[in-house]
Design a protein that fits this description.
Number of strands: 11
Structural class: alpha/beta
CATH architecture: Alpha-Beta Barrel
Number of helices: 14
CATH superfamily: Luciferase-like domain
Low-confidence stretches: 320-325
Radius of gyration: 19 Å
CATH class: Alpha Beta
Mean pLDDT: 95
Strand order of the largest sheet: 1-2-3-4-7-8-9-11
Distance between the termini: 14 Å
Number of domains: 1
């Protein structure tokens, strides 16, 4: 189980994140993951750098694996996603992985196209994944369906295709992505609550494939500070149902989360000032057979978090850190 650092482009400038990912590798993290947003989840977060530009720079100044997530079919045409991923894969062999998800209106509806319901988004995602995989294989692709591709071919490709993970939150979505994905990306939480989603993936074509978990946490030197940071920065994660996928503006999320309480945020983010509790929460994912756990410290004290976890949490926890380098 590798332990990764999550680079949150919604919360920090690209230049800050470049320094932080280097600090994370030096501190003992064995991989990293980057978000891909056009807008932040809140006006208070205040950033949304272009992930694909940042990935090239980040991979040039580190030597561990880095992955990202994309939602093709809207602001990104799948052929462009394939070209971007293949370029990174060619420059940095066996270090880049890409997760594909069905997206959210906050980022994908900016082009003004109709924002479809979840079943239709799943269908678009499956078509895009098929197009990307065919381009990775060197095929000349013409496809006319929910997305259109005409005689596209990638001429610069890595020797080994970039792994395509499927992003899922529910068992239904996990069953869907298992049909085409090389692995699963899932958000963390209580082990028993996320187990059904992982099992749905494995039982429908994902057996033996890697599972990546993005674990949202908030650590600070005091419990009150940790809760304050989590409420300020990550209250949007509390909203349930389809709301997260359908709201269009950061201010909409700010309005929707005005009354989020400490007990609410504690259900969505693992919050504690105790490093031992954080270590135990991460260790619990080993029971699920997770291959990588990407730690998303939602507070703004990123450098302090990296140093503290590097010194007190990671040693002995990441059993593959040496091999990853």
């Amino acid at each position: 189980m590798q332990i990764g650092y999550h680079a949150s482009h919604e919360q920090f400038s690209p230049s800050q994140l470049l320094a932080l990912v280097q600090q994370a590798q030096a501190a003992g993290f064995s991989c990293a993951k980057a978000s891909d947003h056009f807008h932040p989840w809140s006006e208070r977060q205040g950033h949304s750098g272009f992930t694909w530009s940042w990935l090239g720079a980040a991979m040039a100044v580190t030597d561990f694996p880095i992955g990202s997530i994309s939602a093709p079919g809207y602001r990104y045409h799948p052929a462009i996603v394939a070209q971007a991923a293949a370029t990174l894969g060619e420059m940095f062999p066996n270090r880049f992985w890409l997760a594909l998800g069905s997206g959210e209106a906050l980022n994908e509806a900016i082009t003004g196209t109709y924002w479809p319901d979840k079943p239709e988004r799943n269908a678009i995602l499956a078509e895009c994944a098929a197009v990307i995989r065919a381009l990775f294989a060197g095929e000349t692709v013409t496809h006319r369906g929910r997305v259109t591709v005409v005689e596209a071919k990638l001429y610069s490709r890595p020797a080994q295709p970039v792994p395509l993970l499927g992003a899922a939150i529910t068992p239904a979505s996990a069953r869907h992505v298992a049909q085409w994905a090389d692995g699963l990306l899932i958000t963390g939480g209580d082990v028993e609550e996320i187990r059904p989603t992982i099992e749905a993936f494995r039982e429908n074509g994902g057996a033996g494939k890697p599972v990546h978990i993005q674990h949202a946490l908030c650590w600070a030197k005091s419990e009150d500070e940790a809760f304050e940071e989590a409420l300020d920065q990550w209250s949007a994660n509390v909203i349930g149902g389809e709301v997260n996928w359908d709201l269009r503006r950061p201010i909409d999320f700010d309005n929707a989360t005005r009354f989020v309480r400490r007990e609410d945020i504690a259900e969505a983010v693992f919050i504690s000032a105790d490093l031992g509790r954080h270590r135990a929460a991460i260790e619990a994912y080993a029971e699920l057979g997770a291959n990588a756990v990407h730690l998303h410290q939602v507070g703004r004290n990123q450098a302090e978090f990296i140093d503290a976890f590097g010194a007190k949490v990671l040693p002995g926890l990441d059993r593959n850190a040496a091999g990853a380098r």
